[in-house]
Write a structure and sequence with these properties.
The chain is 38% helix and 21% strand. By secondary structure, the chain is an alpha+beta fold. The chain folds into two domains: 241 residues, BirA Bifunctional Protein, domain 2 (2-Layer Sandwich), CATH 3.30.930; 93 residues, Rossmann fold (3-Layer(aba) Sandwich). The chain has an eight-stranded mixed β-sheet. Strands 13-12-14-15-16 form a five-stranded mixed β-sheet, sandwiched between helices. Strand 12, helix 12 and strand 13 form a beta-alpha-beta unit. Helix 1 runs antiparallel to helix 5 and helix 5 runs parallel beside helix 9.
Length: 426
């Protein structure tokens, strides 16, 4: 039994992002926003909880997510709700609900927490964050190429392009997959003794997923299996060839991986993953594909859709491996106040400085303390300057500025000169 005074802890696999970590998140999010807006993608904000039925209908009953990873509960009205395990279904639900898909094209993005009941390990959590990008109304392959080149630009901006490989495949149409499925089932049935338990189950429910198996003992069997590419019709082949040609023209290198099927049911034609060797087993940083069929499946009219999702934690883990990140200072100036009069005057003066020095990050020492202890805090804050308010100087309208990162002399100057100095030098 838990001790009475033991403090409550966070849920396993759900992490706090502490103040010392958030600048890295903000850095990543700012670059993502910048890149997305340079391609004119718009943000959509969606609920974290949806009806369970939405995920069952879209992700598919026999996928890992729906079979064993969802946080599902009944609310007080006995409706079955689920913490979203991904964003594609909710985004499409919202667009259908608000009539956004009628004769329109959309390029959308969202970023936020997703929930999956998985075994927590590095790069795999129960609450994690995804950047999701979804586009509607465009049959491609030009938009397919745009999405991929956009992600390629993101990696370049982050300085991690050479650590990622683009894997590309096509899944053809539902009809083509049905034909292929027969061939695949016939092949695996010939080798049924070599199938592991998961694959035996998938043989009945979702045989393409066998190709996705992470069991190394299955790999040679899988690599000899028939290839979907050989069951594709003219239209699907041409879509894929135009996409690869466009990527060649754009200078985006890729590897064709005919075993890439993606875990979810709703994909067709283009699928892709950006993978790295630098994160151990959790090597997929970003994954996406075309899911035209999902729109009708959720009750909309036939339409086109392609998107991707990027795991923010995995991106952050990659960024942490870099030597340094160009992260902005969190404090520019630290205000030290000594004596009652200085304490009273300080907050007012701080407001004046913030009014006049645009964008300044000014931290006021608030918990009191001797000059020495305040000075230590100023240094620790990482500030470029300390501004020192002492009683007798302040009575003459003067303050001191002490540069904290250089050997330059301390200056005793008027308040207006101090403001001018910050405008010039920050
Ligand atoms: P994996 O094969 O690693 O389980 P997935 O196919 O389940 O990935 P998607 O549903 O395609 O993943 O999600 C897109 C991205 O979200 C992944 O490529 C990954 O970067 C990230 N992601 C998925 N699940 C988790 C998780 N539990 N913790 C952290 N990131 C995750
Ligand atoms: Mg998974």
């Amino acid at each position: 039994m838990a001790k009475k005074n033991q403090s409550v802890q966070a849920i396993r696999g759900m992490h706090d992002i502490l103040p010392e970590q958030s600048p890295r998140w903000q850095y990543a999010e700012n670059i993502i926003r910048e890149v997305l807006s340079s391609y004119c993608y718009q943000e959509i904000r969606l609920p974290t909880v949806e009806k369970t039925e939405l995920f069952k209908r879209s992700i598919g009953e026999v996928t890992d997510i729906v079979e064993k990873e969802m946080y599902t509960f009944n609310d007080r009205n006995n409706d079955s709700l689920t913490l979203r395990p991904e964003g594609t279904a909710g985004c499409l639900r919202a667009c259908l609900e608000h009539g956004l898909l009628h004769n329109q094209v959309h390029r959308l993005w969202y970023c936020g927490p997703m929930f999956r009941y998985e075994r927590p390990q590095k790069g795999r959590y129960r609450q994690f964050h995804q950047l999701g990008v979804e586009t509607y109304g465009m049959p491609g392959p030009d938009i397919d190429a745009e999405l991929i080149v956009l992600t390629d630009r993101l990696w370049k901006r982050f300085g991690i392009r050479e650590r990622l490989t683009l894997e590309l495949n096509t899944l053809g149409t539902t009809q083509e997959r049905l034909v292929y499925r027969e061939k695949l089932v016939a092949y695996f049935k010939q080798h049924i003794a070599a199938l592991d338990e998961d694959s035996l189950r998938r043989l009945e429910t979702n045989p393409l997923r066998i190709l996705d198996s992470k069991n190394k003992d299955m790999h040679s069997l899988i690599s000899d299996a028939p290839e979907l590419m050989d069951s594709l019709g003219e239209d699907s082949l041409q879509h894929f060839q135009t996409l690869t040609r466009t990527l060649d023209q754009l200078g985006v290198s890729y590897e064709i991986n005919t075993r890439l099927v993606r875990g979810l049911d709703y994909y067709g034609k283009t699928v892709f993953e950006w993978v790295t060797n630098d994160l151990g087993a959790q090597g997929t940083v970003c994954a996406g594909g075309r899911y035209d069929g999902l729109i009708e499946q959720l009750g909309g009219k036939a339409n086109h859709a392609i998107g991707f999702a990027m795991g923010m934690e995995r991106l952050l883990l990659l960024l942490e491996q870099l030597d340094s990140l160009p992260i902005a200072r969190t404090v520019d100036v630290y205000m030290i106040r000594v004596g009652t009069a200085a304490e009273e005057e300080g907050l007012r003066l701080a407001e004046k400085i913030r009014n006049e020095v645009q964008g300044i990050k000014l931290q006021v020492n608030c918990a009191g303390g001797s000059f020495k202890s305040q000075f230590k805090k100023a240094d620790k804050s990482g500030a470029e300057y300390a501004i020192i308010l002492a009683e007798d100087e302040l009575s003459r309208g003067e303050v001191s500025i002490k540069p904290l990162r250089t050997n330059k002399e301390q200056m005793n100057i008027s308040i207006n000169e101090a403001i001018h100095f910050f405008i010039e030098s920050l």
